[in-house]
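hey m, so remember when u said the C-alpha cells were messed up on ur end? i reran from scratch. heres the input so u can diff it against urs
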Amino acid sequence: MRRSIATISAAVLGLALITPGAAHAATPTKAGGLSPAEKASLDAGIGVVPKAPYGAKPAGPNPLLADVPDRSKVDYSGWANYMKAQAKAKDAARAKALAANAATKAAATTPAVVVDEDEIHGTLGGNDTPATGQRVTGFGTGASQYSKIRVLGSLDNQPVSTPSVPAPAEDNGSIPLAGDIGIGDFRTGAVVDSQIGDGPHGRQTGDGSNDFDFYKLSATAGQVLTLKTATPTGPLDTVLLLFAPDGTLLAANDDFSGLDSQITYTVAAAGDFYLCVAAYSGLPGDPFDSGSGDGIGDTNPPSEGPYTLTMTAGGVDRDFFAVKLKPGDVLGASVTGSASYLTVYDTVPREVHGSFQDASFIYPMASPLPGGGNAVTDYVATKAGWHYVGVASGSGAYDISVEAYRPALQGATPNQTLFLDFDGARVNTGVFGGSGQRDLSPLAAFLANWGLTRADEDALEDAIVAGVTENIKKDLVASGLNSKFKLKIKNSKDDADPWGQANVSRIVVGGTIEESGVDTIGIAQSIDPGNFETKETALVLLDVLSAPAGDSEASLNTYLTPQSNRIAFLGQALSNVISHEAGHFFGDFHTDNQDALPNLMDAGGTGFGTLFGVGPDGVGGTADDVDVDFGDSAFLPSEGFVGVEDTLGRIVFGVTS
C-alpha cells in the first residue's frame, strides 16, 4: 500500500516549484526562437547542436528512449553513430549471457540454416518485390521448424557510367539556381568535385550565412536515385537534402558512413528533383533562397571544404525473402556485407520496419534478437502468413541473419505486471544516463503547481490509473488481436509495492530533471520487442509538465483554463505520457509527431498537445478532447526508420500471449 509521505521537506517542495522553462523548455538558439534554418533542420530530422566526436556518447538522454522537452538540444546523428559503434560489442555480450543461461542456452547456441539466393548472380529483377520474394520454407517457431537462417546473396545493380563532370558555377544555392549536369537527361551518372564555402554566402568568401550547392536531376518512375558524398580531406561534415520542384523535402541524410552522407530514393513518378549539399548544421531555411542560412554553427574549424559528389539514376537491385510467421512471432534481422538497408514487410504487404541503422544497442540484455550489422530491424507478427525480409542499397555480397522467437511469457503461467509508483522512489538513474542512485520526489509535491491540493491527490491518481488501464489493457484486449493478452496494472495508492518480484516492470511518476540528472520528461530503460526483459523501469518526471502556463507546450498548465476539468485533463495527459514510456519497454519505437495521426508513441520535442489529447479548441479538459491510442503511424523520420509501425500490435502480441 501507499508509503508514508506525511512529511515532505522544504527542499523537495522548493524543487517541485522551480520553474524549469529557461533551462528545459523550448530554448531558442536564436533571439526570438528557432530560426527558419534551424526549424528546417529539425523538421528534416537533422540536429542543430554541435555533434559529439564520431562514436563518442553524446550529452543528454538517448532520444530513441526519451520524451525530450526540446528537440533542438538533441544530437540525433551523434546518438545514431554512438549506437552503431556500440552495437557489435553489446550484441556479443547479449549472446554470451544468453548462452550461459540454462533457460536460453539451447536457442542461443542453435546454429543457423544457410539459405542461398536463387536469383542468378549478376542479374536483378528476380526477387525484387515482396510479390516475387524467394520463399524460405521450414522457417518458423514450431517444434519441427528452424528459427534461424543466414541468407547469402548479392545485390547486382544496373551498370551506370559516372564520368567526372565540372561543378556548376556559383551561386547555385537554391532550387531556381540549381546546376543541371544532365542526370536523367543525357547521363545516368556523374561525379562532381566541388566545395562548400566558396560561394557568395560562405564564411570565407561571402556573407557567412552559409553556402549551399543545389543540383538538378531527372528520373523516370521506378528508377533509384543514389546520391552520396565523400570528404577525404578538410573539416566538411556534409548533409544531403532531396527536394521536389515545389520545395517539398523528399529525403534527407546525415552521417551515412562516417561523416559522409548518402540518399537512396526510389522515384514514384517521372519528374525533376533537386539535391542540396550543405554543411552540418546549416541547412537552408528556404530552398528557394540561397541566402536563407543562418551560419554554419559553432564548429572549429568551420564545416567548410571540398567534397566529391556521386549521383546516379538507374535500376537498383533489391532482394526479398519470404518467411511464414504466426501471430506473436518476434522477428529480428541484421545484415552485413554490401547491403546498407534492411526491411520487413507484413502480410498486406506493406513496409513495417525499414532501417538504415543498427539501433540494437537499445535492446535489453535479455533480448535474443540479432544486432551488430550495417542495419538491423525487428517486427512482431500480428497475423499468420508470409512476411518479407528485404535488403537494398549496396553492390555485392551480403549476409542476412534472420531469427524468430516467441514472446518471453509465451505459455508461461505468470502475467506481466505494470506498477505505477506515485510515492517517489530511489532509482538507479544510471540506466538512463544519469549519475546513479537518486531520490525522486512524489507526485504529491507537484499538485499545487497544477492548482490542486492534497485533497485532490487520490482523484488524480485514480484518473491516471484509469487512463493507463484504458490505453494499455482495455484497448488492447478490445482490439481482438490477441484474446490471451493479460497485463496487471497496479499502483502505489491501492496495492502493495511488487517491485522486485518476477515479471514486474514499473514507472516512477514523480521527480525532476535536477533530482534525476536526466534532461527529459519521460524515459524508458529499453525498447524490447517481445518483452524478453520483464523487469524494467521507466520515469515520468513532473517539473516540465507542471511548469507555469506558457512556459512551453510541454507544460500541462499551458492547456488549462477556467473551463477545464483539471482532474480529467491531468489524468488523461499523464496517463498518455506513462503509456508512452510503457510502450517503449514493451517494444515500441517513436512515431511521427508531425503527421495527422495521433499516436501514444508520438515523439516529444513538439506536438505535445496532440499527445496530451487536447482537442481543436486548444483547451484541455473540455468536451472535444481526443482519446489518443496505440495504432498505426509512421516512424519518426529523425530516428532512422521507415514504414508504418503498428504500436498496438507490437504490444498486444509481444508482451504476453
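this time it looks ok to me. The chain is about 15% helix and 25% strand. if urs says something different then somethings off w ur setup not the seq
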